[in-house]
């Protein structure tokens, strides 16, 4: 019996990719961006999973030998079907399944297959398939980040954020109480590797805005990275 849709507003993504060199970094980046991922390397496994639970997005390697039937399966043609992003075996865009999500027309092949670009396309498809309304906010204590309005506040205080600060705060909130390395943060905030000191400067600016005169929420774990939480970890 299919599982009901999740009620915690975290999008679920099914990766059907044959090459771990594409699948592993893409899965890690999606999870840092706030998605739950399940990865399989066969169309038959994906078909079985799609009958058991609902996904918001399927990222599908069309070069796998058993995916033709999956692309025409009843689950992907159902009214509440997930968005589908089609990739080649090397991770290049091929397009999106027709009708996969409103306003989500495919991008024909030839685009570079960087995982950051795939993540950006995945975000577009998931957003296009989201129903109107809903809370769309991430919270930790009195800190709230609203994805629907792209605004942050702490208690009654509004926090003005640049786009990079917003992406960083979202990354820290999704991974609250977990130490993130500079490499992990850099992959989420920038498409290209950041310049020396860029992450430290960005964290410093965000820390001043979030902490202000209130109890500190953004901390440094020397030698390891940064984390968001209520009290310094040992």
UniProtKB/TrEMBL annotation:
<keyword id="KW-0804">Transcription</keyword>
<dbReference type="Pfam" id="PF00072">
    <property type="entry name" value="Response_reg"/>
</dbReference>
<protein>
    <submittedName>
        <fullName>Response regulator transcription factor</fullName>
    </submittedName>
</protein>
<dbReference type="InterPro" id="IPR001789">
    <property type="entry name" value="Sig_transdc_resp-reg_receiver"/>
</dbReference>
<keyword id="KW-0805">Transcription regulation</keyword>
<feature type="domain" description="OmpR/PhoB-type">
    <location>
        <begin position="135"/>
        <end position="230"/>
    </location>
</feature>
<dbReference type="InterPro" id="IPR036388">
    <property type="entry name" value="WH-like_DNA-bd_sf"/>
</dbReference>
<keyword id="KW-0902">Two-component regulatory system</keyword>
<dbReference type="Pfam" id="PF00486">
    <property type="entry name" value="Trans_reg_C"/>
</dbReference>
<feature type="domain" description="Response regulatory">
    <location>
        <begin position="12"/>
        <end position="122"/>
    </location>
</feature>
<keyword id="KW-0597">Phosphoprotein</keyword>
<dbReference type="InterPro" id="IPR001867">
    <property type="entry name" value="OmpR/PhoB-type_DNA-bd"/>
</dbReference>
<dbReference type="InterPro" id="IPR011006">
    <property type="entry name" value="CheY-like_superfamily"/>
</dbReference>
<feature type="DNA-binding region" description="OmpR/PhoB-type">
    <location>
        <begin position="135"/>
        <end position="230"/>
    </location>
</feature>
<dbReference type="InterPro" id="IPR016032">
    <property type="entry name" value="Sig_transdc_resp-reg_C-effctor"/>
</dbReference>
<dbReference type="InterPro" id="IPR039420">
    <property type="entry name" value="WalR-like"/>
</dbReference>
<keyword id="KW-0238">DNA-binding</keyword>
<feature type="modified residue" description="4-aspartylphosphate">
    <location>
        <position position="61"/>
    </location>
</feature>
């Amino acid at each position: 019996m299919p599982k009901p849709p999740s009620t915690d507003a975290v999008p679920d993504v099914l990766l059907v990719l044959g090459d771990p060199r594409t699948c592993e970094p893409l899965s890690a980046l999606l999870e840092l961006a706030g998605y739950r991922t399940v990865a399989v390397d066969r169309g038959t496994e994906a078909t079985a999973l799609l009958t058991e639970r609902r996904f918001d997005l399927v990222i599908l390697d069309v070069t796998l030998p058993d995916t033709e039937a999956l692309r025409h399966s009843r689950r992907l043609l159902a009214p509440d079907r997930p968005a589908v992003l089609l990739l080649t075996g090397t991770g290049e865009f091929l397009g999106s399944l027709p009708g996969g999500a409103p306003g989500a027309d495919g991008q024909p092949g030839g685009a570079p297959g960087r995982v950051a670009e795939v993540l950006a396309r995945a975000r577009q498809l998931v957003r296009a398939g989201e129903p109107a309304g809903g809370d769309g906010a991430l919270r930790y204590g009195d800190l709230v980040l609203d994805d629907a309005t792209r605004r942050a506040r702490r208690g009654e205080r509004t926090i003005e954020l640049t786009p990079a600060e917003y992406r960083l705060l979202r990354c820290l909130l999704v991974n609250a109480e977990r130490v993130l390395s500079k490499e992990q943060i850099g992959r989420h905030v920038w498409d290209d590797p950041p310049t020396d000191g860029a992450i430290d400067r960005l964290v410093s600016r965000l820390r001043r805005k979030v902490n202000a005169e209130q109890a500190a929420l953004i901390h440094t774990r020397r030698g390891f990275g940064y984390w968001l939480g209520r009290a310094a970890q040992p």
